[in-house]
Amino acid sequence: MTTTDNGTQHGSDAYAAERDTTEGRVYTVTGGDWDELVASVDPVSEERLIVNLGPQHPSTHGVLRLVCELEGETVRSVRPIVGYLHTGIEKNMEYRTWVQGTTFVTRADYLAPIFNETAYCLAVEKLLGVEVPKRADVIRVIMMELNRISSHLVALATTGMELGALSMMIYGFRDREKILDIFEAVCGLRMNMAYIRPGGVAQDLPANGVQMIRDFVEYMPKGLDDYEGLLTGNAIWQERTQGVGYLDVSGCLALGVTGPVLRSAGLAWDLRKTMPYCGYEEYDFEVPVHNGADAWARYVVRLEEIRESLKIISQGLDKLEPGPVMVEDKKIAWPAQLAVGGDGSGNSLNHIRHIMSQSMEALIHHFKLVTEGFRVPAGQVYTAIEAPRGELGIHAVSDGGTRPFRVHMREPSFVNLQSIPALAEGGLLADVIAGGASLDPVMGGCDR
């Protein structure tokens, strides 16, 4: 590597060239040169070649690039390359109020928006030193477990598609639609809802909400039985998943891998049990584990987690008692007496009447709360929850203002993806697909 007079670096190691400007030092980060990468391949074997798998490829979830070094059909090395879906969510939040932050984090792992919102709101509430009402906590648990099921259904559906079981794709998305219908009834949106807010939830369950959820809980076990009849005893499915993508518990711990991948290696680590939040310690459920440590084990664990989530949802419905869904402190609480209109949003008529014709003070307070936001005491916290892909953590820093000073997400997809070389190298190219799919990565969370 060489360095010119102005500080610019050249050569194979020049992945972070730098230069001084009037605004300070600027770094130019690149992913390396393709020609240099190809030239670095051992020329001894004529069978050795470099292949791009993705990023425009359904089996890499649209925007993941895997640079594979192949010798015939055998994978000698895999280099995951991320960043194609980068949205700057964390930086954008520094320019929005604490409440507006929920509309950003919900778009990270877009298959598990409720978890993003809950983890973030728990961090804000910890900084504020407030506790949400009991009913809001129960609603959060119910919504999270519904979201866990819908996320796992996508994992099963897309893995089935990638391995040729196209019927699983159809059934998985069919049943996920039932959950999205519930989300739409509850908050007006099917994804990226910003439903969980600091201090509680945006609005209470609708009149038919509980019955819709009970109907789904009654329906879903039959769907799971159908999945097992389709896949579990299928010889082709077994051949494509058993012994494929092996990653034992020591490998998971070394790489920071969590969630179903870790539990499928035999370690029953689930933050709902080990570090409970939102009242999870009051629910009776098991943590599914498997000792296979392969793609098959991850499939089995996710199926069992859906069954356990159904148990938690049923208990949550029984725990629902009348009460507020937002903290009483009007200096923090956004209006939560919302009535969902035809456009999916809106305030109750009583609230609009109060702020528009009855109380100038209430109008001023509403305007300041919505436009400026509330102040959060200076400090920093880390909160973590058990998302569908593993530990989802939020490190939030406040300087005492109305906007976050810094928010950083410990996103499980990003961490888990680094295990692809460990579970794919030495296997066949086709097994890269099976192993990668069994990790269930969501690139919106990885590239946030």
UniProtKB/TrEMBL annotation:
Keywords: Cell membrane, Membrane, NAD, Quinone, Translocase, Transmembrane, Transmembrane helix, Transport. It comes from Glycomyces mayteni. This is NADH-quinone oxidoreductase subunit D. Pfam families: Complex1_49kDa. Residues 163-448 form the NADH-quinone oxidoreductase subunit D domain. InterPro entries: NADH_Q_OxRdtase_suD (IPR001135), NADH_UbQ_OxRdtase_49kDa_CS (IPR014029), NDH1_su_D/H (IPR022885), NiFe-Hase_large (IPR029014). The chain crosses the membrane at residues 153-173. It is found in: Cell membrane. NDH-1 shuttles electrons from NADH, via FMN and iron-sulfur (Fe-S) centers, to quinones in the respiratory chain. The immediate electron acceptor for the enzyme in this species is believed to be a menaquinone. Couples the redox reaction to proton translocation (for every two electrons transferred, four hydrogen ions are translocated across the cytoplasmic membrane), and thus conserves the redox energy in a proton gradient. Belongs to the complex I 49 kDa subunit family. It is an enzyme of class 7 (translocase). It is a peripheral membrane protein. NDH-1 is composed of 14 different subunits. Subunits NuoB, C, D, E, F, and G constitute the peripheral sector of the complex. The keyword Secreted does not apply. It catalyses: a quinone + NADH + 5 H(+)(in) = a quinol + NAD(+) + 4 H(+)(out). Its EC number is 7.1.1.-.
